[in-house]
Amino acid sequence: MIYYRLPFSDSIFTVNENSGQQSVSFVSFDERETIDFYGKPEEISMKDFRDQPVFSDFLKTELLHFEEETSSDYQKKLEQVIQFIRQNHLPKLVISRRKLLSFEPEKINLSETFLNLCKSYPNAFVYFFIKDGKCWMGAFSELLGKFHPSTSEFETMSLAGTLANEESWSAKEIEEQKPVTDFIRNTLEKYSENVEQSATYDHISGNIKHLRTDFKAKIKPENLDEIISELHPTPAVCGIPKDFCKKAIETFEQHPRNFYAGYIKVETSESVQYFVNLRCAEFFSNAALIYVGGGITAESSTEKEWRETELKSEAILKNMSYGKRGE
Description:
Layout: E1 2-5, E2 12-15, E3 22-27, E4 34-38, E5 41-44, H1 46-51, H2 71-88, E6 92-102, E7 106-108, H3 110-120, E8 125-131, E9 134-140, E10 143-148, E11 153-164, H4 171-189, E12 195-197, E13 201-205, E14 208-218, H5 224-231, E15 239-240, H6 242-252, E16 263-267, E17 272-276, E18 280-283, E19 287-296, H7 302-317, E20 322-324
Antiparallel strand pairs: 1-2, 1-8, 2-5, 3-4, 3-16, 6-15, 6-19, 7-20, 8-9, 9-18, 10-11, 10-17, 11-14, 12-14, 13-14, 16-17, 18-19
């Protein structure tokens, strides 16, 4: 099953897998795993959605023997990462962690949690799926790409830097976003002679904000897949240079990212959209793993980076809907 809501929409869609038409695909960070949903998207009423609630005890897979990375462990690792960044003169390297949420003896109302995310993040792509023994849910508004077949126009954005809404931008966040913007512009200029770039502005996402720059370009339809392949993973979820940083991530991170920092492809008659899969969690019958990360630079503070990941985890944590066993 899958349910999703597009940004700035009140409609919830599901996919009844009854045709050969591919409509929604989840691609893992390393692009080695894909979960596809085939079928025409159908809108589902709020009443029908609520009348068939899905709880975590419906899930078949239990999380066993998981040891969460502590603040001390994470910060020690980031000290090594910062040293590595300085030695290799990297603008940025993105490092993630997994936060454990154990909900025994309670259970999670997955349906209500999904609706809470929809309400909290009106500008995000929000999804919830169960397939092949896996259950994931997330809400994030970064667009890897959007293609309009009728006009051949391609849109994307540079989104990086994170602060609580009430804080002011420092040189660290501004410098963190610049290489992301440069990477996207340079990539698009390979495929289009006219690349439009907006001014940089604040992008609000719940309790936090990011720096955002928008891009538009006319492209050839046959180049779409190649452009997406070049853009993923963006420096916002990986680092620069891309291939070097992907290998470094494998060295420093002891866990697979799975679908975290991968992307979601959604096809409709009007457009093909690709959403970056951040602010997401993997659910089990007894627990959830919340995936969070941050862009590390030579000037990063390990304590501040830990706090940033804790802040990001609240996107999921604050929207959890609990229920007692037996309900």
